[in-house]
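To illustrate the input format used throughout this study, we show a single complete record. The first block contains the structure-token representation of the backbone; no residue identities are included at this stage. The design step must infer an amino acid for every position from geometry alone.
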């Protein structure tokens, strides 16, 4: 009798585990990949000049169109971004899912949608590793009003003649990183606030090993692991994420934010990790 009860309890437990596992898989595949959210951060710096205090930056990454992202998802993204009325919009790579055939209608839809994203100062983009396999990626972004920063920079003036600089580095998976070209403006004796766009975590290592000081690094690629198990962590970490795959890091004066992205790549699952984009509010410390 006792053996029968033990066997019954074990079978009930096994059935519970099977049902729970199937539920998590169903949720991750069909529910977890939808429901775009905004993650907001306040970024303070003593180097930032007061004219930039209150500046709003929207950062989205890994759109990966035609993975788990369709036209309705992109329309929702555009609407949510414009509601925030950002000053600057940045995209840190991987526009379209890998090995997906994109038709002319898709290109026109992307151009039309990205054009509708409005920023009072400007829109910037860099190349992710998937973007090198897309015909006319740069053309799509340029026609959408984005300035592409690959091993280059832009000087931003706002309200006064005190500038900040935004630097873009391409994906180190596909292209050489040329820091000296990207940081031509840099002067130790006249340090200004520097934002650097990267795609993958391994690219950040180039900055770690350099003498250039960067105040804010914005990246993507890792999707923060796609499936995140409570008390354990992310399951799917691409090796090119290096040690930068979670949402947020601090290294001295440098703040690092890694977007969890909007689409999916190798694994079309998300758990405890909704598709999202980031909003940063800059604040000058007195």
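Output of the design step:
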């Amino acid at each position: 009798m006792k053996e029968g009860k033990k066997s019954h309890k074990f079978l009930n437990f096994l059935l519970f585990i099977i049902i729970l596992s199937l539920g998590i898989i169903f949720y991750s595949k069909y529910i977890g990949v939808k429901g775009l959210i905004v993650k907001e951060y306040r970024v303070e710096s003593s180097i930032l000049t007061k004219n930039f205090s209150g500046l709003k930056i929207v950062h989205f990454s890994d759109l990966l169109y035609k993975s788990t992202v369709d036209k309705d998802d992109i329309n929702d993204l555009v609407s949510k971004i414009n509601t925030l009325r950002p000053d600057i919009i940045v995209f840190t790579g991987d526009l379209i899912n890998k090995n997906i055939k994109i038709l002319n209608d898709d290109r026109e839809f992307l151009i039309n949608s990205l054009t509708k994203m409005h920023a009072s100062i400007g829109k910037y983009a860099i190349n992710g590793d998937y973007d090198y396999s897309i015909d006319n990626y740069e053309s799509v972004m340029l026609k959408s009003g984005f300035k592409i920063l690959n091993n280059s920079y832009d000087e931003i003036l706002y309200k006064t003649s005190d500038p900040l600089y935004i630097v873009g580095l391409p994906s180190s998976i596909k292209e050489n990183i040329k820091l000296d070209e990207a940081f031509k403006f840099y002067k130790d004796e006249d340090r200004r606030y520097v934002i650097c766009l990267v795609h993958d975590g391994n690219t950040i290592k180039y900055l770690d090993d350099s003498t250039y000081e960067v105040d804010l690094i914005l990246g993507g690629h890792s999707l923060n692991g796609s499936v995140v198990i409570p008390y354990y962590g992310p399951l799917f970490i691409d090796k090119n994420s290096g040690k930068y795959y979670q949402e947020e890091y601090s290294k001295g004066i440098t703040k690092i934010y890694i977007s969890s992205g909007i689409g999916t790549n190798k694994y079309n699952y998300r758990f405890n990790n909704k598709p999202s984009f980031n909003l940063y509010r800059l604040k000058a410390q007195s």
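Structural context for interpreting the output: The mean pLDDT is 92. Helices lie at 2-31, 71-84, 104-115, 137-143, 179-182, 201-208.
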